[in-house]
Design brief:
Blueprint (H helix, E strand, L loop, with lengths): L8 H11 L12 E6 L2 E7 L8 E6 L2 E8 L18 E8 L10 E5 L2 E7 L23
Antiparallel strand pairs: 1-2, 2-7, 3-4, 4-5, 6-7
Length: about 140
């Protein structure tokens, strides 16, 4: 289902954490899980604290792109921040999907800070039996 072409993903995540929050021109990566469940692939992204309105999901050919933005919570003038460890800014992830997936029928659900995409396997990619025809008789070649 997924093409694993980025051997430096962990290095990129570490560099993004050190460089600060993501922006639209330089988004941070988001953690994800991907697995097959029956006749569909499931991809789950961790997006705690992100409002559903700030999540964008796009599919162009075989490229799935998920973008989200976590903004700071509005605070009053008398609030003094003591510790801030939750990352803010823009998060993005792109995944190359196999041709065997039906990108026309992707379902998205957001619950408890997890965005879950369910991508059905295309009918043409499902296993099927091929029937064998039996010939009607013998043919002789004369020479």
């Amino acid at each position: 289902m997924l093409m694993r072409t980025d051997p430096f993903r962990e290095l990129d995540r570490l560099a993004q954490q050190l460089m600060g929050p993501g922006t639209w021109s330089r988004p941070s990566a988001m953690a994800m899980d991907a697995y097959r469940e029956g006749d569909e692939y499931v991809v789950a992204f961790d997006l705690p604290g992100v409002s559903p309105e700030s999540i964008d999901i796009d599919v162009e050919r075989n490229m799935l792109t998920v973008r989200a933005e976590r903004r700071p919570v509005a605070k009053g003038d008398d609030v003094q921040m003591e510790l801030s460890e939750r990352p803010l800014g823009v998060f993005s992830r792109q995944i190359v999907l196999a041709d065997t997936l039906d990108t026309e029928h992707i379902k998205a659900d957001y619950d408890a800070g997890v965005l879950t995409l369910r991508i059905p396997i295309a009918e043409r990619a499902k296993p099927r039996k091929i029937s064998i025809g039996v010939g009607s008789g013998r043919k002789e070649i004369s020479g």
